[in-house]
Predict the structure.
Amino acid sequence: MPDADAPVPVPVAALLAFVASALESAGVPEGDAARVAGLMVEADVLGHETHGVFRLRQYLARLRDGGCNPAAQPTILRETAATALLDGDNGLGHLAMQAACTLAIEKARGVGIGWVGIRRGNHAGPLSLYVRPQAAAGMLGLAAAVGSANHVPPFGGTDLLLGTNPVAISAPTEGPDPFVLDMATTVAAMGRIKTLAQRGELMPEGWMVGRDGRPLTNPKRRDEGFMLPIGGAKGFGLSVGLGLLAGILNGAAFGSNVVDFTADTTSETNTGQFVAAIDPATFGAGEGFARAATAAFDEMRASEPLPGHGAVRLPGEGKAEIASRRRAEGLRLAPSLRADLSKLAREHGLAELLT
């Protein structure tokens, strides 16, 4: 029998229209609202629920309170054949990141590599959105960002001076799924922790610790402690390195200059990011890169699993099937998120999201 308590699927088109309408109600031009809504919903379609429509309330709060420019016009500040620095005009981060991704691919087509840095950006959802187009174009993609709030101390310290500082890498393959690694440099992404808090669920031990050094498992008490980097000192070093590339290199915030985009909805965040594209043909690989990568991945999948483990899987594997099913059947939003979207509809005078 069907589960009466299971979330009712929401058609992708209905969710797109709702998110775009919400953004327009906050002053975002129709075309920009549609582009951002498309990327936000695509995050959910691909399984990145913690960085998709779940973030709508945060974006609307910053648009309402002046922390984010609804009518931003990203511009190129300086440029070479292979590089560019983009000013996001303090707009919705998706717009600057999408522009950077497109420009990086164009440059890679011309000279083999494109690297576009961003200053004055904002939270832009999962980085995978900005490396998947490179793989679709037969290229390798790379992207990173300075986290939109500091939740991590330097290794061995207690002052919160680092964010989750995520990184994403993509590569083409011969199968339906490109290789797509998208990860925070912390054990868990803050979006995942916030999702658990919204759902009333606990965190596993090892995600956060309190200032007494003891495990913190209640996500609603996350402000009482700090997040842990992956791999201890190695994760800390990686986070710092990405902060240099995405933040300081672009004249963007890093360290104590980072603004918590949720707690402070009035200040400009000056979030730093970068997107890069690499054409394998420049290195003599061309279409052979995808064949060689697929062969290497097939070897990994053929590895005999450890007792108690399933078959080996590669980052990004299965996303095409998930996305196809969700586009056809709709998105099953968590009841807590549905309730929040209904509340947003009332607050902003929007039509209720229909199933």
